[in-house]
# Entry
Amino acid sequence: MEFTYQIFTGNFYSPVPETPPAQVLREAYKLTGAGDVIIGCNTQNDCYREVIDIAHGAGKNCWLWLPVFSELPEDTKPEYATDLYSNVQRGKSVIPGENFRFVCPSSLHNQDISFNLYVKHFSGLRFDGVFLDKIRHASFAGGFSEGFGCFCESCRANYAKRGVNIEEISAMIRENAADFLPCSARPYSFSNPAAAAFYAAKADIITSAVLRISEKFENIGLKTALDVFMPMFAYFTGQDIPALSSKASFIKPMCYRITHAPAGIPYEIDGMRETFAQSGADVKNLLLRLWETDDLCSFNCAQTQLNLLSCCEVRPGFEINFVEGICESGANYVTETAESLKNAGIKNAALCWNLLSPGALENLKALS
Ligand SMILES: [Zn+2]
# Structure
């Protein structure tokens, strides 16, 4: 199995990482072989040239990691999403240096920010493509008020165009959120027709935004790849993976089975439980039943989900970094996961989410 290496150099205006990414990538290639690189997104771009040369020298692609609807710098004047109670969303901050405050995906100004940042800071580099991250609304990990998406004026118009009255939906959610839980999975369906129409429109808003953004990059000769949630959560955040990935080179479902932060499976399950707790729904049991499993964080359950993804190339991502109390990845976890993915027929897996973090190279030694 080949690996794709993910390197987080910090947010747009962060200082350059202390450890040179090129040096770590060379060591990684020695341990676990050459592979594509996803790297970003601080704008001090001197560190990228060498990394790109190393990847290209090995015949591999280098992708610029670009957040789209979160983590945008203030000077780009992002228009933040509006919550269920018409307040500006505040977002979540769990991991230092990472930000889960979402902007409105309907805003054309917001949709253009990542492209404009690319043009301003990265267009002189020989990246092969862009890896678009945070292409979604806030998830249920954002809690009851933020977890259902954006309720601003632009989104209201966007939902109306798709036959959905978002004011009515908002009132329904506040009255009985349990109506917005699915009755079957693979793909998710909803017994309440208004809920079904809401989620379909919510996903269509993301799909049309991402296809528009992808086209802008394609027009300047760059391929796109996408960071997506696992199917258990994706659709609730507006990710209709088959539609979203129709033009992507590959997708990286975040198969984060031990991460207690947004996108991590245990964390998202907790967020979903809390979001629906006040309507008396037992979300954990519902998910266990719908996904026919006795452990929502098991590899078997992940495989059931990955098997649904027959769109473009699928490179599941799993954690190789160690973040105390949040993601304690170690030799057993990485070797078992890699072995299971290989047995499931996966040809390329992404090593997430930061090759520069402590413990990552130790984990690669276990994989070598
Ligand atoms: Zn909005």
Notes: The first strand starts at residue 2 and ends at 8. The chain has a mean pLDDT of 96.
